[in-house]
C-alpha cells in the first residue's frame, strides 16, 4: 500500500487544519451521551431507565436537527448556523447540572435539535476542499479520526464523572463544545468549492436528488452502525458472561485498532469498493464471531476480518453521498447521513440487548450480521436501477434529424 495518496491529501490547502480541528471538536461531542447517562445515574441518583429516557430525547433531537442544520448551512452559510448551535450547547451544558430531572428531558431534546453539527460540517467542507479523485482517502482518514474521538470522548466522560462529579465534567463539556464551535467559526472552512460557487444559481429540487437509490444508501448506512453497535454490545456481553469483565476495555480498544488499520489501508488503495460490498461483507463476517469458543482473546481475534471493514464501510457511504448529491444540497444530505447513523445505532441497542437477555451474546452477533446482509439485499435492486438511470442520463442527446441510419435498426446487445 502506498503512502503517496496521504501525502498528496495533506498538500491541499487547509485540509490538514480541518482534519485536526475536526478531531479535537468531535471529542466533546462523543462524550455527551455517556456524560448524560452518568449524570442522571450518579449526579441525580436515578436509574438507568431514567438515564435512557434523557439520552433518547437527546438522540431524537439530534436525528431531527441534523438535516435541518445542514439545510440551513446550504441556505445561509456556515457561520450563522455555528453561532446559534454553539450558543445553544454552551447554555445547555452549563445549566444541565442544576436542572431537575423533569426539566432535563425537554432541555436535552432541544439541545439535540440544536446540536453542534461537527460531524456533518467536517464532511461537507472536506467534499468542498478535496477533488473528487481524492475523496476516498480523505473520508477514510476522517473515519479514522472519528474512531479516535469515540475511543477518547466516552472514556474521558467516565473518568470525569467518577472522579470529579457531574458539575465539573458537564462544565468541561460546555467549554469543549464552545471552543469547538468558536474554532470552526474562526476557521470558516468553505462548504462549496470555487467551481461549485460559480454554479450556485442552479438549485436542484429535493425530489431530484432524494432518489430511491439515495434512500437505499441511507438504509445501508444505518445498517452499518446497527451491526457495529450490536457487535459492541455482544462483545461486552460475551466477555462479561465469561467472567472476564476486566478485559472489556482492552478488547474494545483492540477492535477499534482493527478499524483504524482497515481505514488506513482502504484510503491508500488505487480504487474503492461499493458500500454494499463493504457493509455486506462486514455483516457476513460478523455472523460467525459468536461461535468462537475459548477466552476473550479468541473472540477479539475472530473480530479481525469484520473489524478491518468498519472504517472503510462508513467512509464509502460518505464518499458515495458526495458523488450523488448536488453541492447546493450537500449540507442537508450530510445531515440525513448523520441521521441514518443515529437511527442505526439507536435501533440496535434495544434489539441486541433483548437478544442477549433471551438467547445469549452469540446470537447477538448473528442478528447484527444478518441485519446488515438483509439491508444490503433490499438495497441492491434500487442500487442497480439508480446506476442504470444515471448512465442513461449521462448519454448525450442526438437531434432526431441527425440520428444515424444504423441506430434506427433493431437494438443489439451493445445497446
How would you describe this structure in keywords?
disordered C terminus, 77% helix, Growth Hormone, Chain: A, 415 residues, globular
Describe what you observe in this structure:
Helix 4 runs antiparallel to helix 8 and helix 13 packs antiparallel against helix 16. Mean pLDDT is 88; it is low at 391-415. The chain has 415 residues and is an all-alpha fold. The chain has helices at 4-10, 15-43, 48-76, 78-95, 101-113, 118-129, 135-163, 166-187, 194-198, 206-209, 212-241, 248-267, 275-286, 296-302, 304-308, 310-324, 330-359, 361-394. The protein is globular, with a radius of gyration of 23 Å. It has 2 domains: 1-135 and 145-193, MFS general substrate transporter like domains (Growth Hormone, Chain: A); 204-389, MFS general substrate transporter like domains (Growth Hormone, Chain: A). The protein has 18 helices and no strands.
Question: SSE layout and pairings?
Answer:
Layout: H1 4-10, H2 15-43, H3 48-76, H4 78-95, H5 101-113, H6 118-129, H7 135-163, H8 166-187, H9 194-198, H10 206-209, H11 212-241, H12 248-267, H13 275-286, H14 296-302, H15 304-308, H16 310-324, H17 330-359, H18 361-394
- Tell me the β content: under 5%
Sketch the topology as an H/E string, one letter per element.
Answer: HHHHHHHHHHHHHHHHHH
Q: Compute the average pLDDT.
A: 88
CATH superfamily of the largest domain: MFS general substrate transporter like domains
Gap between N and C termini: 38 Å
Amino acid at each position: 500500500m502506498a503512502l503517496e495518496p496521504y501525502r498528496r491529501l495533506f498538500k491541499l490547502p487547509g485540509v490538514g487544519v480541518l482534519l485536526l480541528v475536526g478531531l479535537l471538536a468531535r471529542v466533546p461531542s462523543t462524550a455527551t451521551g455517556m456524560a448524560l447517562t452518568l449524570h442522571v445515574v450518579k449526579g441525580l441518583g436515578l436509574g438507568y431507565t431514567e438515564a435512557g429516557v434523557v439520552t433518547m430525547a437527546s438522540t431524537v433531537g439530534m436525528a431531527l436537527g441534523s438535516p435541518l442544520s445542514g439545510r440551513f448551512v446550504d441556505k445561509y452559510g456556515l457561520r450563522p448556523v455555528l453561532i446559534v448551535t454553539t450558543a445553544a450547547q454552551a447554555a445547555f451544558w452549563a445549566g444541565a447540572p442544576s436542572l431537575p430531572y423533569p426539566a432535563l428531558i425537554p432541555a436535552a431534546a432541544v439541545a439535540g435539535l440544536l446540536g453542534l453539527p461537527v460531524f456533518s460540517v467536517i464532511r461537507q467542507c472536506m467534499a468542498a476542499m478535496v477533488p473528487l479523485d481524492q475523496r476516498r482517502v480523505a473520508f477514510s482518514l476522517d473515519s479514522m479520526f472519528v474512531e479516535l474521538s469515540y475511543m477518547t470522548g466516552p472514556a474521558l466522560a467516565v473518568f470525569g464523572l467518577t472522579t470529579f462529579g457531574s458539575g465539573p465534567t458537564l462544565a468541561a463539556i460546555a467549554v469543549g463544545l464552545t471552543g469547538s464551535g468558536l474554532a470552526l467559526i474562526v476557521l470558516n472552512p468553505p462548504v462549496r468549492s470555487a467551481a461549485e460557487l460559480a454554479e450556485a444559481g442552479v438549485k436542484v429540487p429535493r425530489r431530484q436528488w432524494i432518489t430511491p437509490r439515495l434512500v437505499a444508501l441511507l438504509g445501508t448506512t444505518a445498517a452499518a452502525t446497527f451491526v457495529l453497535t450490536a457487535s459492541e454490545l455482544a462483545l461486552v456481553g460475551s466477555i462479561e458472561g465469561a467472567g472476564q469483565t476486566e478485559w472489556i476495555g482492552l478488547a474494545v480498544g483492540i477492535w477499534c485498532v482493527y478499524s483504524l488499520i482497515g481505514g488506513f489501508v482502504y484510503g491508500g488503495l488505487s480504487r474503492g469498493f461499493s458500500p454494499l460490498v463493504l457493509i455486506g461483507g462486514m455483516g457476513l463476517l460478523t455472523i460467525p464471531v459468536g461461535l468462537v469458543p475459548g477466552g476473550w482473546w479468541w473472540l477479539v481475534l475472530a473480530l479481525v476480518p469484520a473489524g478491518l471493514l468498519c472504517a472503510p464501510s462508513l467512509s464509502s457511504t460518505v464518499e458515495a453521498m458526495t458523488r450523488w448529491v448536488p453541492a447546493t444540497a450537500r449540507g442537508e444530505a450530510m445531515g440525513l447521513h448523520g441521521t441514518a447513523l443515529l437511527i442505526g445505532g439507536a435501533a440496535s441497542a434495544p434489539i441486541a440487548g433483548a437478544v442477549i437477555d433471551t438467547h445469549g451474546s452469540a446470537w447477538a452477533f448473528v442478528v447484527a450480521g444478518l441485519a446488515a446482509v438483509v439491508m444490503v439485499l433490499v438495497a441492491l435492486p434500487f442500487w442497480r436501477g439508480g446506476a442504470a438511470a444515471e448512465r442513461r442520463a449521462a448519454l448525450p442527446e442526438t437531434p432526431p434529424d441527425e440520428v444515424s441510419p444504423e441506430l434506427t435498426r433493431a437494438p443489439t446487445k451493445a445497446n
